[in-house]
Amino acid sequence: MTALVTASVTTPETTSPACRSCAGTDGAIVLDLGAQPSSELFPAAADPGPDPLYPLRMWLCAGCGLAQLADDADVPEEPLGREPAALTAQRVEAVRELVAAGVLPFGGTALEFPSPHGGTWLGLLAGHGFTAVEGPGRPADVVVDGCFGLMHEPDQDAALRERMAAVRPGGRLVLQYHSLEAIMAGAQWNALRLGHYAYYSTPAMARMLDAAGFTITSAHRFPLYGGTVALTAGRTAERPIVDTAAVEAVLAPERAAGVLDAARVGALQDSVARTAEELRALLVEQRAAGRTVYGYAAASRAVSLLRLAGVDATLLAGVADAAPAKQGRRMPGTDVPVVAPEALAAAVPDLVLVFVSELVAEARAALPQIERAGGMWLDAGAGRRTGSTG
After folding, report:
1. Could you say which architecture CATH assigns to the domain 271-386?
2. pTM
3. Are 90 and 166 in contact (CB under 8 A)?
């Protein structure tokens, strides 16, 4: 098979961006990854392709500051992955911190908008006196979009207003998102993917909420993915109490990082080719030395990286993933198979590239035999080898 199992570019529905939040048309493309396969479609390993390709570009609205997909692509939902332990732990910490800060109502009802990423806050909130309600039209004291569900909505304004409408008078909306500032600081350009329509900064989120009549009442930053924000908001007309210090502690560094400045966000483009070239050079070096290399985590952020690096199964023997739904398939746009972790251990690889930094510790703990056999783990995002040197 060839390195890239791909087809011609599929024409998107939207080629002239209009903001998914404010409908403005003044803005700029700040990141362009070219034609990419859907990271939600993992073909069967025996399927030779070709896989459809779509434009993958980030556009920054000059009006409200929302970073977003410039183009629409009709892609299927992703095979359900297994939630990283780091994400589960962060959710526990977020609920604990919000409750301790007193920014949530004391008990009451809770409604959660679901996410393709899975996970839930409801069980944790139940431990603090909240009773879950289900279904549309059931307003609640706390409405949560805490598992990155909002970013999957093409119409950001409509989706945000739907969540706001579900908040009872005096209640709070809880939103959690991966910070655009963290994406910029960590050169996480491959966080851009089809199906993820929006990439939030807290200044942009404040503008979106304000336009719909809500005010941020608290904001808390966590280290997950380099910087994840959980904020609460209430109806502006109700004059909610605002933890000004907490909100400004999150807003100020994001403003300073230039999250509303197209030129500064656009610096992400500078790291694309360098990262892809470094990965390919590493894999070519390992192959020349006769070493076997596998990946770990068939994550969305690995898809564009592997394609841009021109990686095939002669360079990367497989990618292990704990999600049964992905096993027996291949990485989109390549012939690299997705295998079970047990198959990875049985292969006795010399090097394992972990495509999600938060999974390094979890993978090493689950597969200690890799290091016992002299293998090494490499955080593919940070470029750090860990464990035995062989």
Report:
1. 3-Layer(aba) Sandwich (3.40)
2. 0.91
3. no
